[in-house]
Amino acid sequence: MRTLRLLCVAALLPALAACGGASSSAPSAPPPASAPVPGERALLFYGNSHTQFNELPALVAELFRQASPGQPVRVAVAPGLLFLDERLSDSTSRTLLDSAAWSQVFLQAQKYSSSGTVNYSTGEAKAWIRLVKARGATPVLFPEWPRRGVDESARIYGLHEGIARAEAACLAPVPQAFDRAAAALPALALHAADGNHSSPAGALLAAYVLYASASGQALGSGPALVTSPVAPALQAQLRQLAAQSLAAGPAARAYCP
Q: Which of 74, 126, 134, 176 is most buried, judged by most C-beta within 10 A?
């Protein structure tokens, strides 16, 4: 499995504020469920440091705001750096799902073998999809990008595609977008120095793919995102590459909006 860098994060809901790594403490009492605001877009992210690096959730939220000016958009990131199987038995993660009327829930951190020699359970990811659907939200599977210089996109995506097809869940083709961008812009650093996490450009590319997959809207053109430090001209290139990757398939996106 990938080596994770420890980040200190806090959930955006005060009742669930927490900071830590492999585990998080349960709240003393579940927060009351938030009444939906008319027209509100409420985004929830479950993931590890790959989700939390470079403000990726905030980038996705900004794209939703950009597409629908005036629409309220809120975003929450589950605390801790847990894998999906660990989150299934984590009371804080479970309570967070029940705490609000989420519209989209992004699921990242399915365990997989870096060597391809170990098979990890996908039952917990499938269970999360069912829980999200039961809450009336759209589950969006977020397969990680490949490590720099490692030919593993097909294996990572194929693992998540099996989950998506089994539970009819939206699947964002993030690995394919990274491969396309790496081929088109070979001098661009899509990864952080560790070759594992994203660079600001890589996070932006992933955000474009996640937004379009979750919203069902074409990326098209748009102003530069203020949340990203990436230069506007490069933002436009990455947006176009993400759109091309989405247009190329794959078929599992049939379960997206």
A: 176
Residue 9 has pLDDT above 80, yes or no: no
3-state secondary structure the chain: CCCCCCCCCCCCCHHHCCCCCCCCCCCCCCCCCCCCCCCCEEEEEECCHHHHHHHHHHHHHHHHHHHCCCCCEEEEECCCCCCHHHHHCCHHHHHHHHCCCCCEEEECCCCCCCCCCCCCCCHHHHHHHHHHHHCCCEEEECCCCCCCCCCCHHHHHHHHHHHHHHHCCEECCHHHHHHHHHHHCCCCCCECCCCCCECHHHHHHHHHHHHHHHHCCCCCCCCCCCCCCCCHHHHHHHHHHHHHHHHCCCHHHHHCC
Considering the entire predicted model, what is its pTM?
0.85
CATH code of the domain covering residue 94? 3.40.50.1110
Domain that holds residue 141: 37-255
